[in-house]
Amino acid sequence: MATVRLPGLVDVHVHLREPGSEQKEDFAHGTRAALAGGITTVLDMPNNPGAPTITPAALAGKARRAAAGACCDIGFHYGATPDNLDTYPAVESQVFGLKLYLDHTTGTLLVERLESMLAIFAAWPAEKPLLVHAEERTVAAVLGLLAVHPRRVHFCHVSLGAEIELIRGAKARGIAVTCEVAPHHLFLSDADLPRLGPYGLMKPPLRTGADVDALWANLDAVDMIATDHAPHTRAEKEGPTPAYGVPGLQTALPLMLTAVAAGRLTLDRLVELMATTPRRVFGLPAPPDTYIEIDPAARWTIADAGQYTKCGWTPFAGMPVQGQVRRVVLRGAEVVRDGQVLATPGSGRVLLPADSGR
Ligand code: NCD
Ligand code: ZN
Ligand code: ZN
Ligand code: ZN
């Protein structure tokens, strides 16, 4: 078994649910899933059901819990609402981005009025990432705003061929946007919905095979892979109104390595998409003496058993993959050995942006 050494990977879009929905996930479980998947740095989203990260006190409370629970390094995004603009100066130096929800999804952070969008665009520092949940026409609306109010914007979970083509066109015209694609939009499609039932429901939804093909064909316009790790319990999935979202931290790298084995991208490009570019875009320096070791030849099948996420399931169960995480070293400490996570809660670091003194 010849292993290959890669840098510790980064995921800029995860929902670790603590506080507010610890039945779905918590910092300890979610960050163990990250390490098992070769991811040593995560950025956590603010839409916690029951406890959104939209006040300085909520952010401080979340950071305190993460310091006690996290097994990998973790930073945070802050949530935009029409009413919390005056709190931005107090949190700017403590988070990696501001998240703006422009379409319906889990949580209560939907911003619907153009007036509020504009105010948020203007209130958050132009050079700090503003992350948008924007689907379909909303992507075009954001690009329209940018034509008049230039600032940094990062598009979350791009899923449609038309969206990636629009973003490619905007980049070609010099509009400085970045975007991410989630593995479930690259490896699943609406053809999987009958099989997956509620476990295939997420926002944006699984798209057509033609959209999946378009994402792969436009991979050069994609800046990074982000999992949108969004666990819900089986009961929440199987209830009358299934929750939207799927876990993804532990499965992203094996899936992408499978695509490397199939010749769909190079290993160098994978490292750009999952480490180098997200670190650059979000200002996350690589920790010293940190790397992962993978076996690119190992063939195995993803299963619910063996998932570290608290929700205990994955939409990729049953998928054969090639490529396996064997070992992870974080700041000199062996945190994964033979695929088993050894890290203890609290051993991860809570990250602040380097330019926090702005
Ligand atoms: C996410 C969640 O559950 O928090 N759900 C999802 O379907 N993606 C929210 C989001 O990222 O939109
Ligand atoms: Zn979203
Ligand atoms: Zn998300
Ligand atoms: Zn457990």
Bound molecules: N-carbamoyl-L-aspartate, zinc ion
Portion in beta strands: 15-25%
Rg: 19 Å
Beta strands, count: 13
**Global structural class:** alpha/beta
Helicity level: 25-40%
How many separate helices?
A: 12
Query: Main beta sheet: strand number and arrangement?
Result: 8 strands, parallel
Average pLDDT: 97
Strand order of the largest sheet: 2-3-4-5-6-7-8-9
Gross geometry: globular
Could you name the ranges where pLDDT drops below 50 across 5 or more consecutive residues?
Answer: none
Distance between the termini: 48 Å
Q: Write down the secondary-structure element order.
A: EEHEHEHEHEHEHEHHHEHHHEEEE
List the defining traits of the structure above.
358 residues, alpha/beta, 8-stranded parallel β-sheet, 5-stranded antiparallel β-sheet, 13 strands, globular, binds N-carbamoyl-L-aspartate, binds zinc ion
Account of the protein in words:
The protein has 358 residues and is α/β, with parallel strands linked by helices. The protein has twelve helices and 13 strands. Helix 6 runs parallel beside helix 9. The N and C termini lie far apart (48 Å). The model has no long low-confidence stretch (mean pLDDT 97). Bound molecules: N-carbamoyl-L-aspartate and zinc ion (3 copies). N-carbamoyl-L-aspartate (NCD) binds next to loops. The site of one zinc ion has 5 residues, from loops.
